[in-house]
Design goal:
The chain is built from 10 helices and 10 strands. It is of the alpha/beta class and 322 residues long.
Length: 322
């Protein structure tokens, strides 16, 4: 495993991180989740990502319990706040009240004294940005969080936040967690340039497009039972033509490239993302330890300009779905 700085900041995170969306606390039993976390830790992953909303808090409990056996200083733990955690009017969003209360609840569920990276899960246009940023700053001052980040914020939103942080001398935002993969490249236009300017690193989610970029979905074939594409509860990002036969056919061409390089398709897809210097880490999901083993092998792999050009040619004209 190789490590990168989180944006321009000093902390080092593994190039591959382990996430828990749609798995731990929900689709994956706690015992299997712990096996995946243990395998990840053994392979050098130090970055574990979750969120309060995943399985309504159960994911945080599973992740915290699984990591409890390890030295707290040896891993980097991230969680998030924004989505509804109840039916009340203040049980959601990025108000000071919701941020402070949810941070305290996440600390209890995770069983830790501090959160390494606390992320705004989305942007909240209903709350003054300064209110959100000062709440995060207060949590950092209290030692409850070490770093603050965001997820799926636009370039303009990141830039506006950076301006306020400078003006009021607040703790900075260090990362953005966007959707990004071969089939969804929208962040390249504005988000990455602004992040580079302001010192934020990208922490990528859905790097395999929910399994599309593993190559397991074939043109003209129905998704196999048990896969995300066959489950309407788990395939919310599978739109925009990514399960179209044309797109799946192109992915199969890239599978051939991966095989010629002695790599799995998953490894190639992750290495393709890690070619971006502004990417600090890619978050994988795993429902069995063998997936962790395969995905972590992408760390440190580089792709030649010729390979990158071939991939661009194959995917030319495929619209980004987000």
């Amino acid at each position: 495993m190789e490590y990168r700085q989180l944006g321009k900041y000093g902390v080092k995170v593994s190039e591959v991180a382990l996430g828990s969306w749609l798995t731990y606390g929900g689709a994956t039993e706690a015992q299997i989740a712990e096996q995946c976390i243990d395998k990840a830790y053994d392979l050098g992953i130090n970055f574990f990502d979750t969120a309060n909303v995943y399985a309504n808090g159960e994911s945080e409990k599973v992740v915290g319990k699984s990591l409890a056996k390890y030295r707290r200083e040896s891993y980097f733990l991230a969680t998030k706040v924004f989505f509804p955690m109840g039916d009340g009017p203040n049980d959601r969003g990025l108000s000071r009240k919701h941020i402070i209360e949810q941070c305290n609840l996440s600390l209890k569920r995770l069983g830790v004294d501090y959160i390494d990276l606390y992320q705004c899960h989305r942007y909240d246009p209903s709350v003054p940005l300064l209110e959100t940023l000062t709440a995060l700053d207060d949590l950092a001052q209290q030692g409850k969080i070490l770093y603050a980040g965001v997820s799926e914020w636009s370039g303009e939103q990141i830039g506006n936040a950076a301006d306020l942080i400078r003006e009021y001398q607040l703790h900075p935002l260090v990362s953005n967690q966007p959707y990004y993969n071969m089939l969804g490249r929208n962040i390249e236009k504005e988000v990455i340039p602004v992040s580079e300017r302001e010192g934020l690193g990208q922490v990528i989610f859905s790097p395999l497009a929910q399994g599309v970029l593993t190559g397991k979905y074939k043109p003209g074939q129905r998704p196999a039972e048990g896969t995300r594409a066959a489950d309407p509860r788990q395939n919310m990002f599978m739109n925009g033509g990514r399960l179209d036969d044309d797109v799946l056919g192109r992915v199969q061409q890239i599978v051939t490239i991966a095989e010629s390089l002695g790599m799995s398709m998953s490894q190639l897809a992750l290495a393709w993302i890690l070619r971006q210097k502004n990417v600090s880490s890619v978050i994988i999901g795993a429902s069995k330890p063998s997936q962790v083993v395969d995905n972590t092998a992408a760390s440190g792999k580089t792709l030649s300009p010729d390979v990158l050009a071939k991939i661009d040619h194959i995917l030319a004209g495929v619209p980004s779905p987000r």
